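stage 2 :: seqdesign
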């Protein structure tokens, strides 16, 4: 089985601007540079056959390129029991539109998707259950966060391999302008299962 999600890769300059905000909160588990991404839809564990079907449906999605800028920060959870710290986006509309297209495409394969309200963001830190952290100062200090603006021309199907050091994300395929089929499926499957054995 392969654990999958759909998201956007971030440019080096965007990751650099976000990692500058990663620190200063005791008890937070900050995301590594290679873990930063924007999730469009979480799929979960599927078979290689189902993955091929998902790739086929995602390859049919078309969208107009749009600008992506990360700005502002926030948290999920309560101040006395935080769950995550995140960076938001300046213009949510094109992301919400693409998110809905991705959900529809995946559901055509028979997989039921979560239709809860979608809030585009990049997770910067996570907290263990029951953690208590003083984050008001961090929110205030990073409230003016603003990343460089990049044009989004494609989205990515990622695999997620859970390890004791945190998840490892791997690109399975990219979809968009001149991107479909950039990574051959069999090559990805070979490398994915090889990583599982090594871990």
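stage 2 :: out
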């Amino acid at each position: 089985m392969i654990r999958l999600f759909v998201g956007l890769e971030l440019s080096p300059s965007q990751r650099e601007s976000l990692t500058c905000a990663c620190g200063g909160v005791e008890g937070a588990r900050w995301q590594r540079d290679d873990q930063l991404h924007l999730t469009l839809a979480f799929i979960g564990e599927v078979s290689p056959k189902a993955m091929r079907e998902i790739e086929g449906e995602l390859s049919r999605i078309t969208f107009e390129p749009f600008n992506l800028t990360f700005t502002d920060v926030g948290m999920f959870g309560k101040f006395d029991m935080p769950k995550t710290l995140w960076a938001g986006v300046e213009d949510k509309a094109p992301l919400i539109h693409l998110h809905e297209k991705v959900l529809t495409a995946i559901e055509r394969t028979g997989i039921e998707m979560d239709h809860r309200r979608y809030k585009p963001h990049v997770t910067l830190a996570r907290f263990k259950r029951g953690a208590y952290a003083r984050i008001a100062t961090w929110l205030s200090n990073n409230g003016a966060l603003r990343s460089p603006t990049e044009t989004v021309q494609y989205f990515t199907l990622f695999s997620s391999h859970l390890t004791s050091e945190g998840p490892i994300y791997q690109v399975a395929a990219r979809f968009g302008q001149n991107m479909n089929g950039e990574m051959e499926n069999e090559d990805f499957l070979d490398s994915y299962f090889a990583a599982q054995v090594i871990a």
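stage 3 :: structure notes
- The chain has a mean pLDDT of 90.
- Residues 93-107 form the longest helix (15 residues).
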